[in-house]
Amino acid sequence: MNRNVLSRRVLAGVAIAALALAGCSSKEDPATDPSAGAGSGLAALSGELKASGASFPNTYYQEVITSLKDEAPNLKVTYNSVGSGTGKKEFGSGLTDFAGSDSTVKDTDGVPAGTFLYVPTVAAPITISYNLKGVDNLQLSADTLAKIFQREIKTWNAPEIAADNPGVTLPATAISVAHRADGSGTTNNFTKYLAAAAPTTWKLGSGDTVAWPADTQGGQKNTGVAQLIQAADGGIGYVDLADATDGKLTFAAIKNKDGKFVKPTLEGATAALAGAEIKDDLTFNPLNAAGADSYPITAPTYLLVKTTYTDAKQKELVKAFVTYLLKDTKDLAAELHYAPLPAELQTKALAQLDKIS
Amino acid sequence: MTVVDKSAQLTRKDRGRHADRLFWAVCVFAGLAVLIILALILVTTVNEAFPAFSADFFTSTDWIPNDPDGDGPRGPVYGTLAFLYGTLVVSAIAVVVAVPVSIGIALFLTELAPPKLRATIVTLIDMLAAVPSVVFGLWGILVLAPAIAPVYQGIHDVVGGVPVLGSLFGEPRSSGRTFMTAGLILAVMIIPIITSISREVFATVPDSDKQAAWALGATRWEMIKGAVLPHSFGGVVGAVILGLGRAMGETIAVALVIGSSVQITANLFESGYALPAIIVDQWGESTGDFRAALIGMGVVLFIITVLINLLARVVVRRAEIRMKGASA
Prior knowledge:
The complex is a heterodimer.
Chain A: H1 3-25, E1 47-53, H2 58-71, E2 75-81, H3 84-92, E3 98-101, E4 116-131, E5 139-140, H4 142-149, H5 159-164, E6 176-180, H6 185-197, E7 217-219, H7 221-231, E8 235-240, H8 241-246, E9 250-251, E10 253-255, E11 261-262, H9 266-275, E12 298-306, H10 312-328, H11 330-335, E13 339-340, H12 343-353
Parallel strand pairs in A: 1-2, 1-3, 5-10, 6-7, 6-8
Antiparallel strand pairs in A: 3-12, 4-8, 4-9, 4-12, 4-13, 10-11
Helix pairs in contact in A: 10-12
Chain B: H1 2-49, H2 55-59, E1 63-64, E2 77-78, H3 81-112, H4 115-130, H5 133-159, H6 163-168, H7 179-203, H8 207-215, H9 220-249, H10 252-257, H11 275-282, H12 288-327
Antiparallel strand pairs in B: 1-2
Helix pairs in contact in B: 1-12, 3-7, 3-9, 4-7, 5-7, 7-9, 8-9, 9-12, 11-12
């Protein structure tokens, strides 16, 4: 991957920290040494961080952890992709040091308000992928999308789809809708988008799982949905950009708030983040965001960190890890089809870490 | 000299008595542990699932884990009927397909096959039992489902107009992920279990019974019908129940090929859902009552399995009495 960037930094870091490390390693538990984590660089960090949560940013977090291993060989970070719900529960019961979540925390999630902070990390566009012979540049508006996924439109040559695609000859193929069978932040963001952008048409509400019509089909994870779309001519479904790109799916351009049809790209996602209104706790909603270039179905993801860590060492490790993730892995994120935060939001996210005590 | 010997024996006996007691205690503990573990599982899961147990849970076919209108009369609703239906239908298909095939294989192995071939086939069937279920599931979605969809279409075209068959074999799902596909995959998975137990049961039929049938001039089929089957009925029912238990609890393979549509339909060529499949699919992102509902479905599955096992015992006992009465 971007080993070149990393190795340069590693060299510098190692040179400075070599002495400190050598001193530490002779002791039984180097982390208790006050010099560790006191700004002597990543290489001096040692200890273990446990985290679990959202599966949607998992690919990215795993790569961050792998690349961090080169810089901080004594810091062991594990992230288990168990889903946002379980992640929040484990975080709330103190099993993990931080959690990944695609959604904001609700009262029933088991994490008391005021004990945690949100740190936004990346965002990613959710593509509307389809498989229709002879149609390469499909355009869809939110209302049409809502009707397709509610099975009110059942063939590709329906007047609503034709109205979104002037001058395109649409076949009379039957539409087969694929959705996520597992509870998923992707479903949550997609349905939230429909509820926001097509409030009068969309009737299924939003959530990690919703009551899809019986004549739709569920696939396991993004790859399962991608496979269902490819399996039949006339298939359509929602898949995150990374898996849709890997699966060589065709994406539809979606009409955004400003009335422009935009294809899912990382630039479109970053534009949506810039157009979104950021709340004081740093939660934000980039779905259906304003801006001519914004891709409207852009999903945010957060890390949840504790406001107070009883163990000062764990606090330093969490801060160091999140800072590294926010500052040093932007190229990595783009490579993996995740959109990095715009500069302003990144500054705010880093400032959030100072509130940890 | 004799005195010394006796005392040595006494000590040994004494130690033997201790060992005996220890052995007794270990065995009783092991026996009780099974019951205790079962009871604890039932108690804790019922306790966890308690918030979800309502009239809707057992009677509704709606599965709406979110709240569509925010303050809704429409949700959340956790109705489990559609999943229960799917589990029963899929297991029934699996048993209907697997039982004749398994008994056929077992009879072939014990009564017909030449010894050399027998060893090879037994090894192959045991290997089939060792294949992990996820492999069957992946094979199901990547190979079987796409390949079998046209077959479903063909069957539908032929029998679509016939009253009962027409509704059972209705318009098929183009993806091939259906009740029928899940049932067929499960059938393949339970054939090794039913076959190997049936084979062992058939092997216990006394040779004298068979010889007697031959001596009376029975053909091979008459011998099997008159001597082998009555003697082994109980054992074969046991084998089928074990297979059924595996089919009902099978999770990943079913989750992958059943199509994940929440519905009750007589059409076996439609997508559906099953109890274990929805638990494994939706557990990860569930909280609160939603999670309680999923645990509740686990309890339902647990109870059904226990009931089926009890039923099987009754059937076996009755059949044995009847068969013995007839042969006496």
